[in-house]
Amino acid sequence: MRKYYAYIRVSTQRQGEKGSSLQEQRAAIETFAKREKLNIVEWFEERETAAKQGRTLFQKMFRALKRGRAHGVIMHKIDRGARNLRDWSDLGMLIDQGIEMHFANENLDLNSRGGRLSADIQAVVAADYIRNLREEVLKGLYGRLKQGFYPRRAPLGYLDNGPGQRKTICPYRGPLVRTAFELYATGNYSLESLRDALTELGLSTRSDRPITVSNVAVMLHNPFYYGLIHVKKTGETFLGNHDPLVSKALFERVQEVRRKPIKVKTAKRCSYVLQRMMRCLRCERVLTGETQKRKKYYRCHSRSCHGTSFREDTILQAVVNFFQTASIDNPILKLISEMLEIMKTDLQQSVEDMTKSLTFSLKKLKDREERLTDAYLDRVIDRETYMARKESLLNEQIEIEEQMQGIQENSLYDQRAQEFYQLIESLKKLPNLKIPDEIRNLLKRAISNISVYGKCIEITWDFPVRTIFSVPNFLYSGAHKGQCRTFTSHESGCNCKIPQSNTEKIIWSKERAHAVARAVLMGKEECEREEEKYREM
Predict the structure, then answer these.
(1) Angle at 344 between CA 415 and CA 420, to 5 degrees
(2) What CATH number belongs to 158-259?
(3) Closest to 471 (Cα-Cα) out of 461, 456, 485, 457
(4) Could you please report the per-residue DSSP string of 278-304?
(5) In which residue ranges of the chain is pLDDT below 50?
(6) CA 242: distance to chain centroid?
(7) Checking DSSP bridges between strand 72-75 and strand 3-10, what pairing results, if any?
C-alpha cells in the first residue's frame, strides 16, 4: 500500500492552542484521504509562519520525501505548504521527481501543464498576500509607536493593560526596578551582586521565577524606563506615552558605570572608614589603611612621601571639631528654615519664567524634529543620520520635560530642604556613631575630597555642606615635632604648601542664612553653573 504524509500548519503558537484551524485542516485531510483511499502514515503538525524559510517540521518532512520514505503528501491548501517562493520551488522539485502532492480543498492535477500553472499562480498570490500583510502590520505598529504606545509585552516593572492602552507602572515591581537603577548607579554593585540584592528584596519575573543576571543586564540597558521606545531591529527611537520609572540622568549614570564597571569585593566588608578617600598631593597616590597596635592608620607608601601617615580617630575628631565651628544649633536651623520659606515665594516668579522658557525650547525641538523628518523624506540625509539626530532630539525633549516637571513641583524644594536638614543632623551625631559603614557613608555625602601633604591635611566639603562655610576647605596638622600643630599657625619647620583657610567660628546673620537657603533650594548643579560663570568673569 502506498504511504502518504499529512501536513497541517498554523502561523502562530497561539492559533494552535486556542484556534480551531488545526482541527479543521485535519478533518478535511482525513475526509479527502478516505475518499481517495490514501493511507496516511505520519502527521506533521507545525505552528510557525510559512512566510519565512526554516520551518523545522516542514524541512524534516521534505528530507523524508526526498529520500523516498513516502510516496506523497496531503495538505489542506497550497498556502499551508508555501507562502514564500523558495519553499514552493522545493515542492516543485519533489513533484518533478514523481512525489505526489495532494490538496484537500483544491482540485489540481499537478502532473498536467494547466494544473501546474494554476498552482504556480496560487503560490505567487500567497507570497504577495504575505508581503501585503507584512506591510499592513508594520504600518499599524509604526502608527502605534508614533502615538507612544509600546506594541510588545511590557518590560519588567510595568503592567500590560490590553491592546491600545498605555503601559502603567506595577505598584509592586516598579519601585524595585527603580531601586535596581539607584543601587547600580552607586558603583558598589556588580551585576551578580545586584541580582542577589534584588532577589532578597523580592524582585522576580512575571512568572514568579528568580531574576537572572541577563534579566538585570537587559533591564539596566533599556531606555524604556526613562521614557523612550527603542526598536532594536531597525535602530529607530520613539517617545513613549508611559510614565518613566527613572530619570534620564540616573539612566545615563548607570550606563557610565556599565561602561567602566567598578570592581566590587563582596567577600570582606570595609573596616576602614576613610579607605580610598585620602590622596597624597605629592605623588597622587591613594593612602593605604592599615592597623598598628590596634590603631588604624592611613599611610602613603611612596618613597618620596616617607612619613606621611594619619591616625583615623584623629582625623575624624578634626572633622567633628571643625564642623562644630559652624555652630548650627536649633535656632540657626530655624532661621534657615524661615529663609527657605521666603526663598520659595521669591523663586515662584523664577519658576514661571523658567517654565515659559522651557516650553518655548520644547516647541523649538518639535519644530526641529518635523524639519528633520522632512529632510529624511526628501532624501537630504540618509537613514542612519536621521535616526541618530532623532534620538538626540528625543533625549533633549525628555530632559526639558523632566526640568519642567521638577520646577513645577513644590515638593522638589521641600525634598532638597529635608535632605539638607537630615545631613546636618547626621553630622552633629557623628561622634556617637560606632558602625564604620555608617560613618563612611555619611562622610562620603559630606566630603568631596581629602588631600594630604606631609603632615598637613586639607578636607573639602561637598555640596550642600560647603554652603555653610565662607571657604570650603580647612587644614589640620598632626602633632609632629618641628611641624605645625594647630589649624591656623605654621612653625618654622613645616614645609606645607597648602594655603591656610579661615577656621574662625562662624557668625550667623540673616544674609548668611539667606545665602545657604538659596543654595540649598537651587541644588548642586545650578550652584556649580553659577560658580563656573563666576570663575570665568
Answers:
(1) 35
(2) 3.90.1750.20
(3) 461
(4) EEETTT-PBPEEEEETTEEEEE---GG
(5) 16, 18-19, 265-269, 472, 476-503
(6) 15
(7) parallel
Query: Comparing C-alpha atoms, which of 275, 331, 322, 271 is closest to residue 299?
Result: 275
Taking the C-alpha atoms of residue 26 and residue 32, their distance in angstroms, rounded to an integer, is: 10
The CA distance from 58 to 56, in Å, is 6
- The residue type of 227 is G
CB atoms within 10 A of CB 42: 14
- AA letter at 38: L
**476 Cβ neighbours under 8 A, 6+ residues apart:** 315, 318, 322, 456, 457, 459, 487
**How wide is the angle at C-alpha 220 spanned by C-alphas 414 and 160, nearest 5°?**
85
**3-state secondary structure (DSSP) of residue 351:** helix
Helices (H), 19-165: 21-36, 56-66, 78-81, 85-96, 113-146
Query: What is the model's pLDDT at position 487?
Result: 37
Q: Please tell us whether the domain made up of 3-142 is placed in CATH 3.40.50.720.
A: no
Distance CA 70, CA 3 (A): 5
Which uninterrupted H or E stretch holds 251?
Answer: helix 248-259
Segments making up each domain of the chain, as ranges: 3-142, 158-259, 277-537
Kindly tell me the burial class for residue 468, based on how many C-beta atoms sit within 10 Å of its own C-beta (0-12, 13-18, 19 or more): buried
- Pair 49, 9: CB distance under 8 Å: no
C-alpha cell at 154: 511590557
Supply the pLDDT for residue 452: 79
Pairing assessment for the beta strands 456-461 and 447-453 based on DSSP bridges: antiparallel
In the prediction, which pLDDT does 86 show?
Answer: 79
Query: Which helix (H) or strand (E) segment is 199 a member of?
Result: helix 191-201
Phi-psi group of 475: left, alpha or beta (phi > 0 → left; psi -120 to 50 → alpha; rest → beta): beta
Total length of the chain: 537
Cα–Cα–Cα angle for 293, 298, 299, nearest 5°? 100
Give the residue carrying C-alpha cell 532661621.
Answer: 335
Q: Is the pTM higher than 0.85?
A: no
By C-alpha distance, which of 447, 467, 466 is closest to 457? 447
Closest by CA to 236, choosing from 124, 130, 342, 384, is 384
